[in-house]
Amino acid sequence: MRLKFYRYLHRVTAPERTGLAWFDLMEFGLAAFGFLCYFVVRGGVVDDAGRALDHARWIIEAQQALGVFIEPAVNQWVLESAWRVRFVNFVYFWLDFPLIVGIAVVFFVRGRRHYTVLRDALLISGAFALVMYWTFPVAPPRYLPEWGFVDTLAEFDNLSYQAQSMRPFVNPFAAVPSLHVGWALIVAMVVFDATRAKWARTAICLVLVSQMVAVVGSANHFIFDAVIGAIVSLGGLGVALWLQRGGYPRLRDWFLGRASHLEQRTRDVAR
After folding, report:
1. Which of 58, 90, 182, 206 counts the most CB atoms within 10 A of its CB?
2. Predicted structure pTM score
């Protein structure tokens, strides 16, 4: 029984495997549990409005010193057009986690390597982000009305993350890092590695650029948040690639070694 088990694990963890196996039920469960933990823990971070607002104002001062405090102008530009408001709301909400899930399903069907890289990069960068949410709470621009910021999601749509049904999973002071931008960057890089199709590469680049505009235009993030989100996500992607090239092959070798060892013991007993 153990021999078959190790052989099975070696087979179903092959990076280019397609098709479905019983092992995939555990994979789906673990992935769902991992992301659920991320959202629950993020939503459970202790709110510290005073520090969060202080950090937000520090970010404004830093960007002003660098001459890149353009958030009020971008938010106002979006508010001047109904279609721009609808566009940034759609991008911010639907081209984030819902799109990621759809792309992950495509990767899962085509082969496990890119799916696994995407899954690991998202979860690892999410873990990095949780540390920052705890240690460096930041209020989003929409919490600073003195600058004229308007939350487009809350004011003009029913897609607000602050909806009552979503509050257990939301921390209003988890602006840094912006994983909307960071995860869009991860998806773009994995898609570029997965396909040479120009339409797919062009589409995912447009998603990334649109998300960068949407996070600022909707008054949910500063440019600083997006930059830190990209750095954190690249760190998560780096660890995911290391696992793909070093960690998982060693694990599969161990499965194979255990199977070979048990097979040899079975032969010895038979003699």
Report:
1. 182
2. 0.88
